[in-house]
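Co-fold these.
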Amino acid sequence: MPEHTNNPSNAPIDELPSEGQLYDLIFLMNSTVWGRRLTYIDIENWLSNFQSDVFDIAYERRMALLLLANFVYYNEDEVRHLCRQMYRNFIHESLLKSSLTEDPSMAVKSILGKTQFGELGPPGKSGSVILYYFRHENALQESNIFNTANPIPDHVDTIVYIDDVTVSGDQARTFLLDENDNLLIQDKHIKILTLIATKEATHDLGSIGIQVTSCIDLDDRSKCFSANSSIFHYFPNHLDNCRQFATIYGLKANPADPLGHSNGQYSFGFFYNVPDNTLPIFWSQHAGWKPVMPRYISNAVGGTQNEIGPYI
Amino acid sequence: MKSDHTFSNPFSDSNANGMDSSKILEYWCDPFPLRQAQQVTESDIYRDITPMFFLGGRGTGKTMFLRYWSYEVQRERALSEIQSKSSNELVMMQYLREMGGIGLYLRIDGPALRSFEKKGVEQDQWDAIFAHFFELQICKRYVEMIIDLTDRDQISFERVATSFVPEMAKCLASPNSGIDSIRAILDRIECEIAVISEFRANIAFSDVRFSPSKAFGSQDLSFGVVRIIKRTLSEYFGDMNFVILIDEYENFNAQQQRMVNTLVKFAKPGITFRIGMRLEGFRSFETTSPKEFIKEGRDYRKIVFETHLTRNKMYSQFLIDVAKKRLESVTELKDKGYVDISKILGKKEDLEEEASELLRNKEDTTKHFRLLKLAQLDIPIENVKGIISNSDRPLLEMLNILWVLRGKSPDVTREAMCDYLNGKHSELAIKYKRDYVDKYKLSLMFLLASVYQKNKQYYSFNTFCFLSSGIVGNFIGLCRKSFEYACFYDPDMLWDQGVIPKELQNKAVHDVANTERQMIKRIQFHGDYIYHLAENLGNIFTKYHRDPFIRYPETNQFSIDKLSISNPIIRDALSAAEEWSIIQKKDMLQQTAPGMPKREIYTLNRILAPIFGITYRTRGGYSEMFDPADMDDLMMKDAAIPKMKLERRRTRNASGSDRNTNKTNTEERIFSTGEAKLQGRFDLGLD
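Predicted complex below.
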C-alpha cells in the first residue's frame, strides 16, 4: 500500500522518487556539474532544518531533496561559456543593424570601436564578476571597458552593462537612472547583457528604451511553484504541498521574502553566489538556518565565505 | 559548504588516449612480470625484430603500453633519468641507443579509417589512397622525431641539413622542389596529408580528383625513410630498430589490414611492428600478395593481455602498483600514507560478518530454515532447526541446511559442525571444513542473501580484482567510483582512516556494472544481440546461484562450438561479444563437466556479476553447453532457461534412504508470502 502523509491533498509520497534515487541524482549532479561542492553531510545538515513543522519528516525530506535535485547550478566553465555566448549574441544583434555590404570583420571592429562594457550595479557586486569573465573570454581590450573614473570618449556611442541575472528589472532600472542622473551615460545607447533574464524584465526595461539581451530566458516553467513548473510536471499532486512546505520554512529562513526576492521561486545559483530570487531555504543563514548553497551577502558578518564571496 | 577534506580523485584519468606523455610516464607500471609466461621482456619491445600483436579488450592497457614505447614518452623518461643523475652530458641519444630502438606511435581513429571507402570511388583507388595516407603518416612521425632530436642538440643539425634533408627531398619530390630544410620536409608531408583530407571531405559532394604532387605506395616511406635515416645518420641510428606502434588495429578494414599485414610480413631489417588490437580484431590474415598470409609464430608473436592478466597470480600486485602510482599523485593521500589500495578497500571480504550483518535487525532471522521444506524429513522442521542451528554463524547454519537437504541427518550434521568448531580432525570435521571453506561458503552467502531478498555485497580489493576480469580499466573504474562515493558520502572516513566503507564500494560496483551493461547496447554492430546474450546468460547463472541444493556452485561459464553456428549474424555477434569483452574465452579447452569432452569455454565478464547477483570469480566445474539453436534464442529472445533440471532433485530422508522426488505444489510454498515469488527473487529452482 502506498504510504500516506498528513498532507492535505493526501498525495502518496511514493509517487515521488525515493530518497535513495534523489540522492543518486544529486550525487551525479554533484560529481559532474557542481564540482563536488557538497557532501552527504552537508546535505544532511541542511535537511536537519526540516523538523516536521509542516508534514511528516520523511515527506519533508523527500520534497527538500526533490527541490535540491532540480537546483540548476552554473559552474565556472558554464559561466565562461555563457559569457562567450552573451558576446556573440551582442555582436550578432549589432551586425543585424549594420550594412549588408560592409565587410563583417570590419563591421565588428567598428561596433567594438564605438562600444564600452561596464558592470551593472555597484562595483564589487555580481556584475563585476561577470564583467571580469566577459572580458577574459572575449579578449576585450582595456579601452572597451567602461571606467567611471574616466570620461567616456566621444566616439563611444553605446554603453553595454553586464550582469548575471535580471529578474524584475528593478535593480537595473534604479541603477541606470542613477547613472543617468550623474550625467555619466547621457546621450548614449544603453544596452544590458545578462546571462539570465525574465521576459518581464526584458519587456519592462525595453519599455524605457533599454535593450536586454540574455543567453537564458526564464519563464513560468523555471518558477518552482508555478502551474507550469518543470519540477512538478510529473508530480502535480505535490506542487501545492511543496509550495506550503517552502513557504513555511521560507518564513523561518527569510521572513521578508519566504520564496525569494520579489517572490522569485527560482532554484538556481552560480559557483560564486546564489541570487536572492532563489528559494531562501537553499541559501539563507538567518536565525541559525543551515544553508546548502550559501549566499554571500556583501555586508555579511561571519558565515561561510569563499575567495570572491565577500566582494559580491 | 565544502567539506574540509577534499582532494582530486586519483582515478579520474582512465583513458591513455587523453593523457600527455608525462602522465603516461607517471602512471606507468611495469607489466612484464605478468607476461613471463609468454616470455616477453622489456628489451624485446625494441630489440626483438619479430612483429608482435597485443590483443586485449577495452581497458586492458594496450594504448598505455604502446604509447609508453613511443619516442615522446621515452624522451620524457630519458630526460627524467638524466635529470635525476644531474648529468649535463649529451646523453639522451645515448640513452635511446641503449634502449635499442625508437617507437613511432600511430593511432588512426575509426571514422578516419572508414572515410577511405565508398562515396562513388572505386575500392582499388581508395586502397591506393589509403596506402599513400598511411605512408605519409609514418613518414611524418619519423621526421618529427628527427626534428625534435635536432632541436635538443642530440643529433647534428648540420648533418641533418647536409645529408638527410637532400635525400628526403629526393624521396618526397623532384630534386628542384625547393625543399631545403627539415621543416620544409615536414611542411611538405603535412601539405600532402591535407590534400588527402580535403579529398575525403569533398568527394561526397563533388566530383573532385585526387591529385597529390607525388603518390606513395606501400613501403615507399615506412621502409624507405628508415633506409635514408640509416644511410645518412648512421652514427646515430645505424644499430637501432624503428618500431612502428599501431593502435586500434581492429578499426582497420580488411583491405587496410591486408596492406599492414604485408608490411608486417615483409618488414625489413631495422624495422618492426608492435600492434595493439581488440580480441577478435583481425579482419584478415591475408597480405596483398596472393596466397600469402601472416602466420602466428612464423610472422608474428601474439600476446594476449586480457587472459594473462586474469590468470597470472601477479595480477593483483600489478593492480596494487597501478593504484599506488595514482594514489601517490594526490599529495594529501601520499602525505597521509594512504597509497595501498588493498588497505583502502580492505584485502578480502568477510563473508561471516556480512552474513551476520544481513540478519541484523531482521524481525525473522530464521527464514533460511524454511529451505528445509524441500527436504524429505521424518521429523518436524522445528526439531531439525533446533539441532542444526548456530545463530551466531548464519553461514554455518546454511551449510547445515545444505547437508540436510542433501540427505545427511541433522544429528550427523551437528556433530560435523561441532567437530569442525572444536578443531577436531575427525573425518566428518574434515569434510565439513572442506565444504564450508573450500567449496560452498560464497555460494551459501549468495543463497542466504537471496532468501532475505537482499543483494550480496561486492567489496574488497580481492573482489575488485576478480570483478575487473583482467581488464585494468575496469579496476580503475571501480576505484574511481568508490572514491567518488567516498568523497561524497563519507570523506572523513577516507581522510581520517584511509578506508572506504564496504557499502560505498558495493554502491560503486553496482554503478560501474550498470554502466557497462548500458554500454553493451551502444556497440555499433550487433549491440542488441549481445545485450540479449548477456542478459540471458546472467539470468541463467542467477538461477544456478539460487538453487538451494547448490548442485552447480558458482556457475558462470558456458561452452559453444563457434564453428557450428551457421547463422553468420549470430556468429559475428558472438565474435563481437568477445571483441568487446562481454564474454571472455578461456585460453585452454576445458571439460564442460566431469566426464564430458573438452570444449571452448567462455565466461560472462565478471564486471556484470553484481547485476545478476552471481559470483565474481570463476570456479569452473560445470559449464552450460549451448548449441547453435540455443545461441539463436539467447541472442534474440528472453531465454533464461538453465540446461540443467534444477527443479528435480535426488535426496535422502533424514533416516538415510534414497528417494527420487519431484517438486510439488506444497513444496513451492516455502515462504509464507507470495511477495518473494512475485519479485522473482526466490526461484529456488522450483518454478
